[in-house]
Structures are given as C-alpha cells and as structure tokens.
Amino acid sequence: MSTTFQLDTSTSRANPTPAPMKRLTVPSIRARKQDGVTAEPLVMLTAYTARQAQLLDAHCDLLLVGDSLGQVIYGLPSTIPVTLRMMADHAAAVVRGSYHSVVVVDMPFGSYEASPQQAFDSASFLLKESGAAAVKLEGGAAMAETVAFLSQRGIPVMGHVGLTPQAVNVLGGYMARGRSDAEADKIVTDAKALDEAGAFAIVIEGVVEPIAIAATKAVSAPTIGIGASAQCDGQVLVTEDMLGMFERVPRFVKKYGNIAEVIEQTAKAYADEVRARAFPGSEQTYQPK
C-alpha cells in the first residue's frame, strides 16, 4: 500500500493518508499497446491544482500538468512565458492530489531545446521538485537525441508532434497540420523518430485524421490524440475546455459541462443575498451561549 498526500475535503487541508491503490507506472502505460493494438484507450486530462487532480484522478490513466496553465490559470497570451518554477509548483500540487494516475509535467519553452544536457537539468529539476513520474516535450526528429539522452538516464519522456503550441510563432498559428504531403510525411517521420528514441507515449495534436491514424500505426508507443482521431491509443483534453469554462475553444473540444454558467449563477446568488443582508443567516453565525 503506497501513501501520498491527499486533500481532506472536510477541512481543505493536506494530510498523509493511505492511498487506496498503487499508482500506475510509466511501463504500465507503455504496455497498454501490444503488437500495435491498445485494447483499452488511455485517458488523459490536464490538471493544475491538488483539488482538481483529486476529482479527476480516479477516472484517468494520466494527468498532464500542461504548460497550457499559462493561458488557463495565469491569463497569458500563449505558453511561451511559462517558467520551470511555475510548472514545478503546479505539478507538485497535482501529485499531492492524486494517487492513481501517472503525472506527466510539460517542459516549458526554453528549458530543453538548447541541448540534451539542458533538457536533463530542467527535467531532473521538475521531477525532484514535484514528484511527477515523467516529462513531456514538444518536437519530433529534432528532439530525438534529447529524448534518448533523457530516457537513458532514467527520465521517462512523452513526445508531442503535429501542432506544437510552443512553436506557434514558427508555425504561424494554431491551424491543423498535415494537410500537405510534405507536412504529413514529416509528422509520421517525427513520431517514428521519437518512438525509436524511447518516448513511452506520443501526443498527436491538431493533425488531420488520416495522418494521425498513420502515425499511430507507425509507432510501437501509444499515441494520445487531441484534435486527431479516435483511432489514437488515447485522448487528452484541457480540462477547463471540456468543462465549459471558456466560451471559445478549439473545434476539437467537446464540452461535457457548463461550469462557467454554474460559477456565474452561484456568484450572483451569493451577491444578491449579501446585498439583501440575507447572508449570513443564523446557520452561518455564532450566537452567545
């Protein structure tokens, strides 16, 4: 029986409690794809806080502490300004709030591209500071040497091909990739290079469906689609997008809820009661004995 820090929701305090099951491992995720087939698709969602992780954990195989937190949490215009410190702190919170899922943390822009050694220094910092199990980095064949360098030194790596948000300035925007023959060939080649370098899984983002399927069939590692295909070996979404926290989302997002409306309506009800002096009432105040 493993232990971890779980949020006690009755007090909102973190206390060490026995975990009800052993956490999944990177090898168990990798082994879900056998002979090119993943019988049960992998489920991954983003998480940035301990409470969010606690709510998502039982339903996921992987929790991704994505650099999308730059936009979702901090209101930044892109993922580019996100720092290692930001990623480490949020990843630590997600680890504390989970007991089942493999926690993967994004390596932010500028923390790994210069050299394999820079990537190792950044990745080791993230894993030491957070307790996460693996890192994710963007890029295909150009990052294969780095993926191999990290994997050979005990750092599991999830790759990311297709639409790579950290390269948005080079790509020219957030449009789907793989529409030209040359781009399609590069996506498949990139996925194969990461697979051969030792990536335990590969995110395929914003890629036209036939190319996503071709890349999935071309690699032995599980692929995780986002704006790709149901034929990938798993799927990931930004949780806030899926919950309906934002009005505008990419076309590949399915809104499974409308949490923004719930929050707004609840805040309005609270404000109305405060202004009417209806809150707090007798049940929320302390009276003399």
Key features of this structure:
11 helices, alpha/beta, two-stranded antiparallel ribbon, 289 residues, 8-stranded parallel barrel, TIM Barrel, 12 strands, 18% strand
Structure description:
This protein has 289 residues and is an alpha/beta fold. The chain has a single domain, classed as Alpha-Beta Barrel (TIM Barrel). The chain is built from 11 helices and 12 strands. Strands 5-6-7-8-9-10-11-12 form an 8-stranded parallel β-barrel, surrounded by 5 helices. The chain has a two-stranded antiparallel ribbon with strand order 1-2. Helix 4 (84-96) packs parallel to helix 5, helix 5 (116-130) crosses helix 6 (144-152) and helix 8 (181-197) runs parallel beside helix 9. The model has no long low-confidence stretch (mean pLDDT 91).
CATH superfamily: Phosphoenolpyruvate-binding domains
Q: Which oligomeric state applies?
A: single chain
Spatial order of strands in the largest sheet? 5-6-7-8-9-10-11-12
| CA radius of gyration | 21 Å
- DSSP strand content: 15-25%
Based on secondary structure, the structural category is alpha/beta
Q: How many distinct folded domains?
A: 1
Q: Compute the number of helices.
A: 11
CATH fold call: TIM Barrel
> So what's the overall shape?
globular
Distance between the termini: 46 Å
- In CATH, what is the class? Alpha Beta
SSE string, helices as H and strands as E: EEHEEEHEHHEHEHEHHEHEEHH
